[in-house]
Automatic annotation (TrEMBL):
GO terms, molecular function: catalytic activity; phosphopantetheine binding
Protein name, as recorded: Condensation domain-containing protein
GO BP: amino acid activation for nonribosomal peptide biosynthetic process; lipid biosynthetic process; secondary metabolite biosynthetic process
PANTHER family registered for this protein in UniProt: FATTY ACID SYNTHASE (PTHR45527:SF1), NONRIBOSOMAL PEPTIDE SYNTHETASE (PTHR45527)
GO cellular component terms attached to this protein's record: cytoplasm
Protein's organism: Kitasatospora cineracea
InterPro entries: CAT-like_dom_sf, Condensation_dom
């Protein structure tokens, strides 16, 4: 139970803290949230998947009390003692909860006049870029910043495999109590192992099957790419970030929610969707909403990771914004309810539907409402924006999408960030989007806003809308497809082909191919095209392949 020095430099000292819980070791299958997050961690950059937080230190709290508080958190919560055994190059199948172990805390003395927030940010950014060892490492990395030996701020890097945003916020609230010398009642929420047992039950299995049906309904016939126009090129996942803070926006949101009877989240989501639809020049916006899954019974205070995507298809073809807000709230509730799923089966479903449609879900639009995960104490301590609204650009971050809205705070001051791909919105247009969102909220707080043929969105926003003038655009089902982009895709997938012609005939996308010396069947052609498709967001696989020795869809063994 000691705190032993583990190493030091002129700039910091690293202490090792040992913990021992009264709960025994435990083991069980992964929860659906753990499984989903581990898959993401194995696929995406660590800096994108690892999260960060800065925890304030209670007034007068001394170093021993702070260290004891962190040790107590580890002993209270099974998620902090959870590892995922197995080789690093394989997806784990089990979670194991340790009864005892250790973790480290870096103690960093601040220089005279040094900004603790800036130092914490630097520590967190460095820590986020380093992947966690899921089989062995404690899921939190701590740096306690001190001034004249007194703790002033705690920087935290969080592994998403064990903790989501809500859980991190709950831990912060417990930290404040414990570091101030207070005590806490024993946790009552289920542990991750207990959550996994419930998910494996008959009722849990019914829920995951319902989620699969929900996802298949949207994936099968809604647009796979929201943005498809002359500006859209290959995807670059390193996106610039615009931060927006507005006290007037928070007041307008509160008025709009009161006037419409909807939640703050539904109002923001509807406004975001209608602006995205305007930019895309289409009525349906398919978006991924990162879901905390806290609506499930008994999980509001769960310490663990429950985060999975909710899939929403928001139809903005409405006469007015009030109608859209009500519709969006219903879509969101349905999407969140169906956000508990087996990630492996969802990814297989996405692949199967892609092969059938010849188009792959591109995840162009994302929303992440984190406002409920930021404790009121942290929000209240934030300084008010110096201007109204306050806009600030931040360094680009790996963000595998085209447009993303992160909602950080809604009470007192509306705070959100926009990640935008320059093919969708350049920097000037991103600022227009932010101002348009605030203006739309202001109007929604006082009256209804007209949509439809006489929509107010274009003059209100000043945003560009999709143009499809420079290429051979064709609507194929619910997708806009550039036939020239399809031909480029085929040349990438079939480099040995001597000649490729793409046409739209009799409501069918047809590729006539001279394969050259290499024998080619429709099935082999389609397999190669689907493998090359990621990143070609304005293309899709042909619906029929015409080859010298056979014609067919390639989706089966049909060689007619």
């Amino acid at each position: 139970m000691s705190a032993a020095p583990a190493g030091n430099t002129p700039e910091h000292t690293t202490l090792t803290l040992h913990y021992r819980s009264t709960a025994p070791e435990a083991e069980g299958p992964l929860t659906l949230g753990q499984d989903n997050m581990i898959r993401c961690l194995r696929h995406d950059e660590p800096s994108h998947m690892n999260k960060q937080a800065t925890w304030s230190v209670p007034p007068g709290a001394e170093l021993p009390a702070c260290l004891d508080a962190l040790r107590t958190l580890a002993e209270r919560h099974a998620a902090l003692r959870t590892v995922f055994p197995g080789p690093a190059d394989r997806h784990p199948e089990r979670q194991r909860v340790r009864a005892a172990g250790e973790f480290t805390v870096r103690v960093i003395p601040l220089a005279d006049g040094e900004d603790p927030a800036a130092r914490a940010e630097a520590y967190c950014w460095d820590g986020r870029r380093q992947a966690f060892d899921l089989a062995a490492e404690f899921p939190l990395r701590f740096a306690l910043l001190t001034r004249d030996d007194a703790p002033v701020l705690l920087a935290v890097v969080i592994c998403h495999a064990q903790l989501d945003g809500v859980a991190t916020g709950l831990l912060f609230q417990e930290w404040l109590t414990l570091a101030a010398g207070g005590t806490l009642p024993p946790p009552t929420a289920p542990t991750p192992v207990e959550v996994a047992e419930q998910e494996q039950s008959a009722s849990g299995q019914r829920r995951t099957k319902a989620a699969l049906r929900h996802w298949e309904h949207i994936l099968a016939d809604r647009p796979t790419s929201v943005f498809a126009d002359d500006r859209i090129g290959p995807n670059d996942t390193l996106l610039p970030t615009l931060g927006v803070r507005s006290t007037a926006g928070a007041a307008a949101l509160e008025r709009a929610a009161a006037r419409t009877g909807a939640s703050n989240s539904a109002v923001l989501l509807a406004c975001y969707a209608v602006l995205a639809a305007h930019r895309a020049a289409r009525s349906t916006v398919v978006m991924a909403a990162l879901s905390a899954n806290r609506h499930r019974p008994g999980l509001a205070d769960h310490i663990g990771t429950l985060a999975q995507d909710a899939l929403l298809a928001v139809d903005t073809d409405c006469p007015d914004l009030d109608t859209l807000i009500a519709r969006t709230q219903a879509h969101a509730l349905s999407g969140y309810w169906h956000a508990t799923f087996d990630a492996e089966r969802i990814w297989q479903l996405i692949e199967d539907v892609a092969v059938r449609r010849g188009a792959r879900f591109a995840r162009h639009v994302v929303v992440n409402d984190l406002s409920a995960t930021v404790p009121a104490e942290i929000a209240a301590a934030r300084p008010l924006p110096p201007t109204e609204p306050d806009l600030a650009w931040y360094p680009a971050e790996p963000t595998p999408t085209r447009l993303m809205l992160n909602i950080w705070r809604t009470a007192g001051c509306l705070e959100f960030t926009l990640h935008t791909h320059p093919d969708v919105l350049d920097r000037e247009e991103t600022e227009l989007f932010a101002h348009a969102l605030l203006r739309l909220l202001d109007l929604a707080g006082t009256r209804n806003v007209t949509l439809g043929p006489d929509s107010e969105i274009a003059p209100l926003s000043g945003l560009p809308t999709a143009r499809r003038d420079k290429a051979r655009w064709q609507q194929v089902g619910t997708n806009w497809i550039d036939l020239d982009a399809v031909a480029d895709l085929l040349r990438t997938a079939l480099p040995a082909a001597r000649d490729i012609e793409v046409t739209w005939e009799n409501d069918e996308l047809i590729a006539t191919i001279d394969p050259g010396p290499t024998p080619l069947t429709p099935t082999r052609a389609h397999t190669a095209v689907m493998a090359a498709l990621p990143g070609h967001d304005t293309a899709m696989a042909p619906q029929r392949y015409v080859l010298p020795h056979g014609t067919g869809t390639g989706r089966d063994r049909d060689l007619r």
